[in-house]
Write a structure and sequence with these properties.
Layout: E1 4-7, H1 8-18, E2 23-26, H2 33-45, E3 49-52, H3 56-68, E4 74-77, H4 79-94, E5 99-107, E6 113-116, H5 121-125, E7 136-138, H6 143-160, E8 163-169, H7 170-174, E9 176-179, H8 200-203, H9 218-238, E10 242-245, E11 253-256, H10 259-274, E12 279-284, E13 286-288, H11 292-298, E14 306-311, H12 317-325, E15 331-335, H13 344-354
Parallel strand pairs: 2-3, 4-5, 5-8, 7-8, 11-12, 11-14, 14-15
Antiparallel strand pairs: 1-9, 5-6, 7-13, 10-12
Helix pairs in contact: 1-2, 1-6, 3-4, 10-13, 11-12
Length: 355
C-alpha cells in the first residue's frame, strides 16, 4: 500500500483501527475533534464502537471499564480534557489496565487557546493525577510518526498493563502529510485472560479476576506500588527512544527538543551547519522514559559549551535536561507558549547569542 495524504487527526484514528482497537470513547475539544468525526464514520465500517461521552470525566471511566474487560480501547482529547480524565487515568494505572490516551495539546493554563503548545509535558510525564504512577509517554514529530506510535502504543500498553500517552499538538493534529500505514496489527491481546474481568465462562476458568486499585492494608499498598515501580524501571531499561542529529561533530551547543518544535530545531541545526557552526541535537521520542543517558553522555563532549532545551512551553522539559546534565554544563531554556511556533531563524539567533 502506498502513501496517502491525510490530516494528522484522521491518520491517528485510522492507525488505531489498524492496531486492532475497535473501541473509541471521546468528547469533542479543539484541536483534536476530527479524530472523533473520522471514527464516527469508520468504526461502524469495521464493526467497532464509537461513543461520545457526556463529558471527559465520563469518557475516562468508560475507558477504565473497557480496559478492565481486556478490550483494546483509546481516546483522544486536548489539554483541559485530559485534566478531567486524570483521576480515571490514575485509577487505570493503579488497577494495571492497558489503555491509550492521545493528547493533541493546546495552549494553557485554563482554557488558554486552541493553537499548538507543548505545555502538558509535566501533566503527562510526572503523572497528572494522584498517586505514585507513571505513563509511558511518546512524542511524534510528524504525522507518519504519529501513526507508527499509535500502532506501537497498544502492544506496549498490554506489555506493561499500563496506560500509554501520546503527546502531539495542534500542528500534528491539523497538518496534512503523506503517510504509509505499517502492516495491520489486528490481533487479540495475548494475556488478558490472566487478569481481565471478561467472564469465567469466556475463559473456561473457575478463577475470578478482580481488577482494583484499592488496598486498605498499608503493607499491601506499599507492595503494590513497588510492583508498579518495577514496571516503570523496566520501561527505563527497554523503551527509551530518541533521535540523534549531527552528533558526530565537535558541536559547540546541544539542543534538546521534541515533537513539532524539534522539526524547527532540526532545520536550524542544518542552517547553522551551512554557516560553519556545529550544533548537535537530541530529539526525545519517548518523554517517559526519558533519554537520560544519551543526554548525560552528550554533555561530556569537550567541545560543547551549553545545552539548550527548546520547547513550546514556558520551560518544563528543561528540568529533566538539567537533571540529566547534573551541573556539568550550563543548561538554557528557550520557548514560546501562546501558539506561535519559533522559526528556524529565531532558533539560530538564540544559539548564536548563547554559545
Amino acid at each position: 500500500m502506498g502513501k496517502i495524504l491525510m490530516k494528522g487527526n484522521e491518520a491517528i484514528g485510522e492507525a488505531a483501527i489498524r492496531a486492532g482497537c475497535l473501541n473509541y470513547f471521546a468528547y469533542p475539544i479543539t484541536p483534536q475533534s476530527e479524530v472523533a468525526e473520522y471514527l464516527a464514520r469508520r468504526m461502524p465500517e469495521v464493526n467497532g464502537v464509537f461513543l461520545q461521552g457526556e463529558s471527559e470525566v465520563a469518557v475516562g471511566y468508560m475507558i477504565f471499564g473497557a480496559s478492565a474487560c481486556g478490550e483494546r480501547v483509546f481516546t483522544t482529547s486536548s489539554s483541559p480534557g485530559v485534566s478531567l480524565m486524570s483521576e480515571a487515568i490514575s485509577y487505570i494505572a493503579g488497577a494495571q489496565c492497558p489503555a491509550v490516551f492521545v493528547n493533541i495539546i493546546r495552549g494553557g493554563p485554563g482554557l488558554g487557546g486552541i493553537l499548538p503548545s507543548q505545555a502538558d509535558y509535566f501533566q503527562a510525564t510526572k503523572g497528572g493525577g494522584h498517586g505514585d504512577y507513571r505513563l509511558l509517554v511518546m512524542a511524534p514529530a510528524s504525522v507518519q510518526e504519529a501513526v507508527e506510535m499509535v500502532m506501537k502504543a497498544f502492544p506496549l500498553a498490554e506489555k506493561y498493563r499500563n496506560p500509554v500517552m501520546i503527546l502531539g499538538d495542534g500542528l500534528i493534529g491539523q497538518m496534512m502529510e503523506p503517510v504509509e500505514f505499517p502492516e495491520d496489527l489486528r490481533t487479540e491481546p495475548s494475556n488478558k485472560d490472566e487478569w481481565a474481568t471478561n467472564g469465567m465462562s469466556t475463559r473456561g476458568d473457575d478463577k475470578q479476576n478482580l481488577v482494583k486499585s484499592l488496598y486498605l492494608d498499608p503493607t499491601a499498598l506499599n507492595d503494590h506500588n513497588l510492583l508498579l515501580k518495577s514496571k516503570y524501571d523496566q520501561m527505563k531499561k527497554e523503551e527509551v527512544l530518541y533521535e540523534p542529529v549531527n552528533m558526530d561533530t565537535d558541536y559547540k551547543a546541544l539542543i534538546v527538543s521534541y515533537g513539532t518544535m524539534s522539526r524547527v530545531c532540526k532545520s536550524a541545526v542544518a542552517m547553522l551547519k551551512e554557516e560553519g557552526i556545529e550544533v548537535g541535537m537530541i530529539r526525545p521520542q519517548t518523554l517517559f522514559p526519558f533519554p537520560e543517558k544519551a543526554i548525560a553522555d552528550a554533555a561530556e563532549k569537550s567541545s560543547c559549551k551549553i545545552i539548550l532545551s527548546i520547547e513550546m512551553s514556558m520551560g518544563q522539559m528543561v528540568e529533566d535536561v538539567e537533571r540529566c546534565v547534573k551541573g556539568k554544563l550550563p543548561v538554557s531554556w528557550y520557548g514560546k507558549c501562546g501558539g506561535d511556533v519559533p522559526s528556524p531563524e529565531e532558533i539560530m539567533d538564540v544559539v548564536k547569542e548563547r554559545i
